[in-house]
Write a structure and sequence with these properties.
Chain B: Keywords: Cell membrane, Membrane, Transmembrane, Transmembrane helix, Transport. Chain B: This is Cobalamin biosynthesis protein CbiM. Chain B: It is found in: Cell membrane. Chain B: InterPro entries: CbiM/NikMN. Chain B: One of its GO terms (biological process) is transition metal ion transport. The complex is a heterodimer. A two-stranded antiparallel ribbon of chain A has the order 1-2. The two termini of chain A are about 35 Å apart. In chain A, strand 1 and strand 2 form a beta hairpin. The mean pLDDT of chain A is about 85. Chain A is mainly alpha-helical. Chain A folds into two domains: about 150 residues, no CATH class; about 70 residues, no CATH class. In chain A, helix 1 runs antiparallel to helix 5, helix 1 crosses helix 6 and helix 6 packs antiparallel against helix 7. By secondary structure, chain B is mainly alpha-helical. Chain B has a single domain, classed as Orthogonal Bundle (Arp2/3 complex 21 kDa subunit ARPC3). In chain B, about 70% of the residues lie in helices and about 5% in strands. Chain B is built from seven helices and two strands, in the order H-H-E-E-H-H-H-H-H. Chain B has a two-stranded antiparallel ribbon. In chain B, helix 1 packs across helix 4. The model of chain B has no long low-confidence stretch (mean pLDDT about 85). The chains are: A mainly alpha, B mainly alpha.
Amino acid sequence: MDIGLNNLNPKLKIIGAMVLAFTFSFIKSIELLPVIFFISLVIYYLSKLPLSLLLKRWIIPAPFVILMGLFMMFFSEGQTVLTIGYLSIKKEGIYWALTIITKFLSILTIMVTLFQTTHFIDIVRALNSLGVPAILTDIIIFTYRYIFEIGKQLNKMQISMRLRGFRNRGLKNIISLVSLVGTILVRSYEQSEKVYNAMILRGYGHKESVKQDLKLCKSDILGVFIVVAISIGLITVQIGLSWGGF
Amino acid sequence: MHIPDGILPVAVCASGYGLTGLATWYSLKKIKEKEDPRKEIPKASLGTAAFFVASWISIPIPPASVHLVLTGLLGILLGYYAFPAVLISLFFQAVMFQHGGLTTLGVNAIILGLPAILAHYTYTIGKKFLYKNNLKYGILGFIIGSLSIGISVILFYTIVITFIPANIDVNAEKIASLAFVISHIPLMIIEGIFTAFVLIYLKKVKPEMLEAK
């Protein structure tokens, strides 16, 4: 039986990823932080994705989380462990910084695994079959299609502006930037009318556009069982640690 | 103004999803009251994509630069589609660029989406009285643009500082709040000016886009 993540049912993958992400958010005890980090790395390893990809994804949002961590380390109330000039690092601050950084990396790893092992259109279909209204899933699909097209338009317009001597000097050039954004909005508005007419001619609106029945197999059920077992286990241990029962 | 995963307690993330579900339900209810709800879907999608792309434009404000958020303009142009548009934009930002997070998607949608809904209502009322005069219309745009960011900043800061898991020193908290608010004043002003000029531009070039949805 193949339990490779790439072949699992997208609907169950979304449920599994969200269950794990919320379970990781629930964790507060420092003893469990290495456990959730290890679980997320094992799941990423099972996806057979390259490590370099994960590292790239970790780097993008890292500055905000590191800043939050530093703020907590220096400005939390508690026992001082080190003094640097006017600032002092607190024991409790280190604990909280470690907690948010580990939780952030673990949840991000789970989400990267989900979105890198599932085709985007399958995720949208799965969201629809999980009850997300068709209007929303339709907008998601069309937006995904148009982001790249409008992005190209913006790029072309910015190149043309530079070739005509435009230099972005902030508020001094605000009128040019307003025209740039205004033109993008007007073009997209005009395009939307043509798109709608073309869609109607092709039968849009006569049936649910993305709804699809996603069948389950044994590996899906095993996958869900493992995720639910891990989550129940982690939540039970966390509650036990919070009450001092372990 | 995107809160990443792992910072907020699970109850806050779940409440964020609950409130976002409610706001989305309300928006969809209003959309479905229209004669042909699907007619506006391509417009809303292209609008969402255009706003997503417009947020890539940065304006240099020495020593840093700011990128546009444009939630006020989004509320004006997309009406009841504005909240779903914000939600979808944030979903894409979390998935494509890891800005924000999926457990915090609901909270982030409230931070940026509620001002968009308020912008829609403010515009619908204000337009009746101020549309004819360009200066007054521009002032309405400025107020909507800058207040949308102001409300988002207040919501973001209140949520982060209230639900941050650590006990932060009171003095440090005061300094951080002051620094945070001051650092966002330029963005509020720029968003206000930008929204005002875009409204006047659209009034001249494509006035039908400004009919409240």
